Amino acid sequence: EVYFKNLSKQKQKEVMEKNGNNHKLRVCVATCNRADYSKLAPIMFGIKAEPQFFELDVVVLGSHLIDDYGNTYRMIEQDDFDIHTRLHTIVRGEDEAAMVESVGLALVKLPDVLNRLKPDIMIVHGDRFDALALATSAALMNIRILHIEGGEVSGTIDDSIRHAITKLAHYHVCCTRSAEQHLIAMCEDHDRILLAGCPSYDKLLSAKNKDYMSIIRMWLGEDVKTRDYIVALQHPVTTDIKHSIKMFELTLDALISFNKRTLVLFPNVDAGSKEMVRVMRKKGIEHHPNFRAVKHVPFDQFIQLVAHAGCMIGNSSCGVREVGAFGTPVINLGTRQTGRETGENVLHVRDADTQDKILHALQLQFGKQYPCSKIYGDGNAVPRILKFLKSIDLKEPLQKKFCFPPVKDNISQDIDHILETQSALAVDLGGTNLRVAIVSMKGEIVKKYTQLNPKTYEDRLALILKMCVEAASEAVNVNCRILGVGISTGGRVNPREGIVLHSTKLIQEWSSVDLRTPISDALHLPVWVDNDGNCAALAERKFGHGKGIENFVTLITGTGIGGGIVHQHELIHGSSFCAAELGHIVVSLDGPECLCGSQGCIEAYASGIALQREAKKLHDDDLLLVEGMSMKEEEIVTAAHLIQAAKLGNTKAESILRTAGTALGLGVVNILHTVNPSLVILSGVLANHYVNAVKDVINRQALSSVKTVDVVVSNLADPALLGAASLVLDYTTRRIY
């Protein structure tokens, strides 16, 4: 609340003047159940904290007022909100007819309440049948409606209800980019859609560090440890009640067999919930020593319970939405959340038709820890929503406008609605420098930071974290929303676990290093790690010559020689993550020694280190410098001096470069004969010097069937950073189930 009180005073005056006569916006927030209150409460606190702008009226209805569901209206009172009206709208029966009758009863009672309150705007959340009654009443009484979490996709009748409310609502607050696009596709006015994130994330992302052991012990017992218990929350599927009850029975059987302490929450008020409660009692769940069955847990405490659980199981939207913020493993059962965007922490068991299948899922997921996911929010939803509310002009016509196709290609919000550019934090760990950049979805490097790469593991990791935190903070100032962190590093990498297995000799103390965990924990962002050669290939696939190409190979020619192979649009890692070590293709049995310990590798001939070695030999024999060249005594001999000498007619330098180009060309021929790509991309500082030599070798040595392959020089200015960004932008956790 203190935060909201300290918002800009000047902006407040401007908005008040716009609406004229210092009119306060009268906002009615109607809450129907424990789930929607967890999303609405942060907004209510924000509204309450700005009395100079808003008047808040709270209406409570639905299962909040039913003893069997925990009388959850009490938590609203405990949060110090004055409840203006309580409406008993639930017709008991917990079947399809009772849901219809409950909607009808709400429609009968709501007009009188709304006539008395006369709100300027009503805030309605989600997709429950109670919310449909609220939206219908407000729309027919010419009250503006702000709908929270529209545009999302899931299973059951909730989908239809959510989209019906969308058509009744005048303003929309959505949580994800996909939801925003769905609303636009549904012909909603672009200017009345705010991509804010989920309001509950404002509380979630600051909750995990609070004291939690007392909460765990209170609900699960004194002997329970963190990551050693399960939270189960399963609701009936109203479009297939019989099957969902059977699935619930199988879930309980699996949990009993799994033999871990489990907190089971009672289902919601939907049709079929009574039968599910009967199943719980039939199996003795309320008296089983391993189970704690409860009707309601306050949201603040529920956050702590799921944040430190070994697993969450069920079909609640909380599992696929909020729990991802903590990286807690989730088992999503059945079809109730079909279509939801989920993080990698969610394992879907759509056809949970046997106890063994659910038990196997528990064995796979229990006790794991996944990267934190921010698919549904970044912790700043409420300030955006309040700003959006203040921008509403009550003088505008109430009648909705629909934007029918064709939909604009470039959809954007007004800047006042704080629409950020989706971006990635890219990290490039080189032998000399450590670089961090903010990279946009279009491949634009918005801001870049460079430091010398420290020599020790501790200093290097500390510097990575420091630079990433600074860049993430700066992203807010440059209007970028960070989706995750991508790291490009030399050596052999296990991208599944985010671990550097073995380093090159250029980066010291960099073997068996877990990069994902510390960075993900520090930034609350998902983290991807891969080899620098693979990252260069990903950069080409997304931003460069490889865009739209099914099979291609990228070769990096720099300090070392590396690369990446893309086959059927996918990057090849190999069984031990050693694929595409192209610099270590042997092209001569008795060639020079390579840093890998072998002889005759491409890298031993054509890398920057190899050219520098040969340049030093020439210089030591006074055979490097020719007319037009000069060097200071203390100047270090580099590959650049060799190239300069060759350009000025030094025949020995020319011979060395010719041999290096031939070695690289022979390596490319081997690649063509092995994976048969349609394109070879040369990247790095030496690419322009080698491209013609490589083409000549292909023309002389390759089979006729591959001689026509295209060999091009990369046009990307910074493939390492762009490739690291591609890890995030291409493999972000926004998977659709």
UniProtKB/TrEMBL annotation:
Biological pathway: Amino-sugar metabolism; N-acetylneuraminate biosynthesis
User: What's in the GO CC field?
Assistant: cytosol
MF terms from GO for this chain are:
ATP binding; hydrolase activity, hydrolyzing O-glycosyl compounds; metal ion binding; N-acylmannosamine kinase activity; UDP-N-acetylglucosamine 2-epimerase activity
**EC number of the protein:** 2.7.1.60, 3.2.1.183
- Residues that coordinate or bind an N-acyl-D-mannosamine: 492, 504, 532, 581, 584, 603
Checking SUPFAM superfamilies in the record gives: Actin-like ATPase domain, UDP-Glycosyltransferase/glycogen phosphorylase
Q: Which NCBIfam families match?
A: NeuC_NnaA
**Name of the protein:** Bifunctional UDP-N-acetylglucosamine 2-epimerase/N-acetylmannosamine kinase
Q: The organism's lineage? A: Eukaryota, Metazoa, Chordata, Craniata, Vertebrata
